[in-house]
Amino acid sequence: MGAKQSKVSDPKNVVTSSLESSSKNVVRDEANADIPSMKTTQEQTSIDDSVPSSSSEQQQQQHPPNQNLSSVVLLGHSMGCAATLQMALNFLPKETQKLIVLVSPALMPSSKKTAAGNQKNTKLSRLQKIIRYIVQSQPSQKLKIAVRLLFSILRSVILDVPLSYTAKRIVNSKFWRKGLTLAWGDGSLLKDSDVLRYEWPAVCQHWVSGILSFARSRLFYQDNHELELLQNVASLPNTKVVIIHGTLDAVIPVSMSQNIIKQTPDNKIELCLLEGRGHNPFEENVDEFVECFQRIVHNYKTN
Q: How many Cα atoms occupy the beta-carbon half-sphere of 79 within 13 Å?
């Protein structure tokens, strides 16, 4: 039941190395961050998009694993960790050596929900079942299109319009500064350039619709098997999972990662704590985070 747990306080003897001498064999999945994607073109979302559920076999058929990779490093942050785990489980061959690094992972449990959450999710689930039944059971293609269009209009009028107006009003420099101050372990280290990085997406076309799409995907995600997904990935052969977590993370408490370690047997997952850091340790102290990451890669290569 025990698992390795290390604290990075004075990382002096860090060996700078990659998992393979050739950079072609190393994949850093830094795109799976906790940042909703911005749409640059007008897109219509179907009903099925709100519930991203598909089996591993279906995903592998659509995206066959890359057989040419001998070793891979995947890096994910916060809610983006689920996408990183899906990539490791469904899009890579089992014989590939995989190092999965999860930073402040926000993974949803499959059980032990609150009563209020259960009631809310039940209502949403019933609504989805009704809509899916209508769409899938009708013989007329025109009727299917009409139902989808009606649902899209209702969602736009009831949810998207007021939420878009609210988001445009409240999401500004003050919003990001206050949020980042709370998220960082030491808010006094926050610089104007850090806040500006979070303001930049607002110049993109349809940035609000991107945020709303991201929120809907989390709201309608009924499976809630992300912790089970983590365990499945940790059980893969030739796979090592390491969690990096700041001890002062106010968004995803470090106790959540510590509980994951306790529930994982055989040292399948290792926890690396960054003292005094918050939810975004890679921004709060770049050098410290890079040294921690390099140490993890080096240890995996030598063990």
A: 13
Distance CA 45, CA 148 (A): 9
* Least reliable range by pLDDT among 27-31, 76-80, 154-158, 188-192: 27-31
Query: Rg of the chain's alpha carbons, rounded to an integer?
Result: 21
Backbone φ, ψ for residue 181 (5° rounding):
-60, -40
Instruction: Tell me the three-class secondary structure of 188-233, residue by residue.
Output: HHCCHHHHHHHHHHHHCCCHHHHHHHHHHHHHCCCCCCHHHHHHHH
Do residues 185 and 276 lie in contact, with contact meaning Cβ atoms separated by under 8 Å?
yes
Backbone φ, ψ for residue 247 (5° rounding): -70, -20
> 238: which strand partners?
none
Q: Which of 271, 244, 268, 292 is nearest to 1 (CA)?
A: 268
Q: Which residue has the tokens 């994607």?
A: 37
Integer Cα distance of 196 and 177 in angstroms: 9
Q: Contact 276/186 with Cβ under 8 angstroms?
A: yes
> Whole-angstrom Cα distance, residue 45 to residue 49?
6
Of 84-98, 203-217, 289-303, the range with the lowest mean pLDDT is: 203-217
How many Cα neighbours within 13 Å face the side chain of 84? 34
Q: CA angle 100-279-222, nearest 5°?
A: 70
Displacement of CA 115 from its chain's centroid (Å) = 25
Beta bridge mates, 201: none
